[in-house]
Amino acid sequence: MNTCGRPFDDGTACVEPVAEAGQACPAHRRADAAALAARARAARRPHVPIEAGPPPLADDDAAAIFATLDRHRVAYVVIGGMAAAMWGADLPRTTDADIVPAADPANLERLAAALAELGARLRVPGEPDGLPAPLDATMLAGLTTVTMLTDRGPLDVTFRPDGTAGYADLAARSVRRPVGDHPGVPVADLADVIASKQAAGRAKDLTALPALRRLLARLRPQP
Questions:
Q1: CA distances from 80 to 7, 10, 157, 161, 172 (A)
Q2: Which of 105, 130, 195, 222 could form a disulfide bond with 149, CB atoms 3.0-4.6 angstroms apart?
């Protein structure tokens, strides 16, 4: 007598009689048909892509943001991931530009005008286009950090980054470095970028520190 012989989950074999050797019993044929139908339904199901994170900020967009700040005579220094990239760090490209502006009232007026030209909106989770806000000098004066979306990409403004004393301290050691078609943007000293990331202590900052320290050692070898 021929039996089905298909294995069960417990490792035993099905002993249901079948007409021919190698044939499955009715119960196992139904199970095979159900599995085949499930695979067919899965193949027809529309593919739902994994939501991607924000794209890296292109050099041309960063240059456009900085050119607008310059046109309005804003006093600022670039810091963070953008500054690291402009020093030549071998790190994943940053998704935004980080600046530290001078906090005097006249500079805040100029910064507010530049933000208006850039179409700046508040960057808020769940609002992919950002939220409009009165980003005037009065509002800016009451903030320590503001994260924004602009028509040329994300821009973060921080008045006193962790590990620094703010604009005057950073500007004194800053250098001008090119980005995109911008000939020279004021960029925080690499040692200040490292100090800021170390003080911030976020996981992504701590991960970047070894590469930044190696870069600093190459740029400024000890005698």
A1: 60, 58, 11, 9, 17
A2: 130
Q: Write out pLDDT tens, residues 21-73.
A: 777 777 767 777 777 767 766 666 665 554 556 789 999 999 999 999 999 99
Give me the DSSP letters along the chain.
--B--PBPTTSPBP--B-SSTTPPPHHHHHHHHHHHHHHHHHHHSPP-PPPP-PPPPPHHHHHHHHHHHHHTT--EEEEHHHHHHHTT--SPPPSSEEEEE--SHHHHHHHHHHHHHTT-EEEETTEEEEE-----HHHHHT-SEEEEEETTEEEEEESS-TTS--HHHHHHH-EEEEETTEEEEEE--HHHHHHHHHHH--HHHHHHHHHHHHHHHHHS---
CATH number of 59-219: 3.30.460.40
Domain boundaries, the chain: 1-48, 59-219
Whole-structure pTM value: 0.75
